[in-house]
Design goal:
The complex is a heterodimer of chains A (394) and B (336). By secondary structure, chain A is an alpha/beta fold. Chain A has 15 helices and 16 strands. Chain A folds into 2 domains: 221 residues, Rossmann fold; 146 residues, Rossmann fold, CATH 3.40.50.2300. The longest helix of chain B has 37 residues. Chain B contains 13 helices and 2 strands, in the order ααααβαβαααααααα. Chain B is 72% helix and 1% strand. With 336 residues, chain B is an all-alpha fold.
């Protein structure tokens, strides 16, 4: 009797696994911490892709997909790891869309993803160090490395005829990586970095940091920091003391809250943020609008693409196991194949199920290079009349 | 040679920020030194007392702003300040009644009182976070600049700007007035004299009929007022965040000890010494020196002794030197 019961139970379990099941995808982002104003639209983007795939009814023979959120805090590696650990061990997610900031993403990759064999696609970890990190083939990113953004920044500044700049960066992997990449690229273009100095986040007063930068001089202050943190403080202190009047604002500093906080003095400052003018971007913003959120904020489209890539790769591999689907990411993301834009995930699933190739373009023209990171498309923007204006795409 | 530009750069980046920061530290250090001189212990809860007073002031400021009551070019927070002081005075008097009085009656040693004050610190820490949260709060309003960098350049034709923020001017003037009133009170009034007598020799003061409870209460009220004023000025000039106020405890104690614990004049001197050395040691002097020296002698380096990240190291360096060579501080404080 006991044996019969066991057998029945086992059969029932097996049957459950073989047919439609619920696949869980971790959405591991800094819902609290220095990026807390940009993260909600990133998570919304990822969840939009997950919902689209789930509602299509074509994923892995009719399986549904559900997102599970985890908080990285962006800065606290221990908190991020325990959140990731929970996603992997108790929620049993099949893949992780995340993390967001480079430091915590590296920690989660080494201490949670690799030991458990779970694949990760990060939409916004941009540290160059992650290009060469040991990842057992499990780690990808739909965001380009900062080395790439550093080159773009140098291009924009030299195109505008700026010859000498001061750089301040937030004292962590992201800030240091970007400052170094930029300094190298700018020097190669014949520009001069007068001083590259770190600042700590979360201080009340940045006048001493600004004083040192002002003394070194420079036409523009490049602020590789965070919009809700020290980056804002550095700009405020510079404006107050009249040390700098034009700022270069890379992706971490792209946010309406900065423009609202500083006001008119920020007009005329400019920067770069990942973005593209491909039809996918416009389509994504429309989809996001219909879903009730703003898809134009930093890394929202990358998040949609990251989640979509995870699911399409699972379909291509016909498996939700990390070691299987991660082998398909490059195939799905790159040519040859039918180009796939946002809102066409159902079509992509059909094509994959029929054994055909696809080339996922998505919201951000994803093109995976090197060890699995986006080649990157950047939007040059300028602050005008308290808003952002796109200058051109690079 | 361009002395005027050098002077403008020096004033803008070193002197004015240092002066405002020094005034804020001096007020904080005065509170610490009074408690130490009269109640005979180091009050570690002082930073969080500042945070509490500032928090109440911020709430009252928001209320005033919501009913449209402002102080014109002056920050509204100055109108709200008396309410902050009153609430903080009540809090510290209640704390004294509930906590410190017991240990005073036990004739507890200063070391025990220090530990007790740390307990009080954590409780106040929690109260502040409970009511206002851990985030940055901005409550400055009124005129933002006395002189803005752009206006100064236009008016003088110099290459260097000089900005004086409204909050910096308010800080220095308010701190000056507060110190003047405090010294008048300690030197001229009967209560002030009895406080000094109590601080100099408790036994003789008791013999001459001074009421110790009254001295203790007045001391707490003055310390609460100083803490609240210092906290509000710091918050106006920079920004309010509970954790930064907790961290302020370090430079404030450094200032009080350098000046000589228990000596009010020393606290003021200590505040400015710590503030100016923090600013001057971490400032990159290249710009100022380039203006002063002939063009062919202009320096290539930044002439910065230490990165700005090492600001706190400067105050601690001075603190250690003073403790090694003049343990009672520059102005001869006391040691219990």
């Amino acid at each position: 009797m006991k044996k019969l019961l066991l057998a029945t139970a086992a059969t029932a379990l097996m049957a459950g696994a073989a047919t439609a099941e619920e696949v869980k995808i971790g959405v591991l982002m800094g819902f609290t911490g220095p990026l807390e104003t940009t993260v909600p639209n990133m998570a919304n983007g990822a969840e939009l892709a997950i919902k689209e795939v789930s509602d299509s009814g074509k994923f892995m023979g009719g399986s549904t997909v559900a997102p599970v959120r985890g908080d990285t805090t962006c800065v606290d590696a221990a908190a991020a790891q325990s959140a990731a650990e929970r996603l992997v061990t108790s929620d049993k997610v099949a893949g992780i869309m995340g993390g967001d900031c480079s430091g915590v993403t590296g920690a989660v990759l080494q201490n949670v993803a690799r030991p458990n064999g779970v694949g990760m696609i990060s939409p916004s970890a941009t540290s160059p160090a992650l290009s060469t990190a040991e990842d057992d083939g499990l780690f990808f990113r739909t965001a380009p490395s900062d080395a790439r953004q550093g080159e773009i920044m140098a291009d924009i500044l030299s195109d505008r005829g700026v010859k000498s700049v001061a750089v301040t960066y937030t004292n962590n992997d992201y800030g240091k990586g970007m400052a170094d990449a930029f300094a190298a690229a700018f020097a190669a273009k014949g520009g001069n970095v007068t001083l590259s100095a770190p600042h700590e986040d979360g201080k009340a007063d940045y006048s001493a940091e600004v004083a040192a930068l002002a003394s070194a001089g420079g036409d523009v202050l490049v602020v590789a920091g965070y919009v809700d943190q020290g980056g804002k403080g550095m700009i405020q202190a510079s404006v107050d003391s009249g040390a700098f009047s034009t700022f270069f604002l890379p992706d971490g500093m792209y946010g309406q809250s900065l423009v609202d906080a500083i006001g008119a003095p920020l007009n005329g400052s400019y920067g770069s943020v990942p973005g593209t003018d491909s039809p996918g971007a416009a389509k994504y913003v429309e989809l996001a609008k219909a879903a009730g959120f703003d898809g134009g904020t930093a890394y929202s489209g990358e998040s949609y693409d990251a989640a979509a890539l995870i699911l399409l790769s699972m379909e291509a591999a016909k498996s939700t196991a990390g070691k299987d689907w991660t082998t398909k990411v490059m195939d799905v993301a790159n040519a040859p194949g039918e180009p796939i834009y946002p809102g066409e995930l159902g079509k992509a699933l059909e094509l994959l199920a029929a054994g055909q190739d696809i080339d996922y373009v998505g919201a951000t023209s994803v093109e995976m290079i090197g060890s699995g990171e986006s080649a990157g498309n950047f939007r040059e923007y300028e602050v005008k009349d308290g808003g952002f204006e796109t200058i051109k795409f690079r | 040679m361009d002395i005027l530009n050098a002077l403008a750069a020096f004033l803008n980046f070193v002197f004015i920020p240092g002066l405002a920061y020094g005034a804020q530290l001096a007020l904080g250090a005065l509170g610490v030194t009074l408690i130490y001189g009269i109640l005979r212990f180091s009050n570690f809860a002082h930073g969080d007392t500042m945070a509490f007073g500032t928090m109440v002031t911020i709430f009252v400021t928001w209320f005033f702003q919501s009913i449209g009551l402002t102080a014109g070019v002056l920050p509204t927070a100055l109108l709200a300040l008396p309410f902050g002081i009153a609430a903080t005075a009540l809090l510290v008097l209640a704390t004294d009644k509930v906590v410190y009085q017991f240990y005073r009656r036990q004739k507890a040693t200063p070391t025990i009182l220090v530990i007790v004050s740390m307990g009080v610190m954590f409780v106040m820490n929690g109260i502040v976070r409970l009511f206002i949260g851990v985030d940055d709060q901005n409550f400055a309003d009124g005129g933002r600049f006395l002189i803005s960098a752009g206006d100064f350049k236009a008016a003088t034709g110099l290459a260097e700007g000089l900005a004086i923020k409204g909050s910096q001017a308010v800080t220095v003037i308010t701190a000056g007035l507060t110190v003047a009133v405090l010294f008048w009170f300690l030197q001229k009034t009967r209560t002030g004299k009895s406080m000094r007598a109590f601080a100099d020799n408790e036994d003789l003061a008791l013999l001459s009929g001074i009421n110790p409870d009254r001295v203790v209460q007045v001391t707490w009220v003055i310390a609460a007022a100083l803490a609240t004023i210092a906290g509000v000025l710091y918050g106006l000039d920079k920004s309010f965040r509970p954790f930064t106020y907790f961290q302020l405890l370090l430079p404030i104690f450094a200032a009080a000890i350098v000046g000589g614990l228990g000596n009010p004049l020393g606290a003021i001197a200590g505040g400015f010494i710590i503030a100016f050395s923090e600013v001057m040691v971490t400032y990159a002097w290249k710009k100022v020196v380039t203006y002063v020296l002939p063009a062919d002698m202009a320096p290539d380096g930044l002439l910065q002794l230490m990165g700005t990240d090492y600001k706190y190291a400067v105050s601690f360096g001075i603190l250690i030197l003073v403790l090694l060579f003049m343990p009672t501080g520059i102005f001869k404080g006391k040691a219990y």
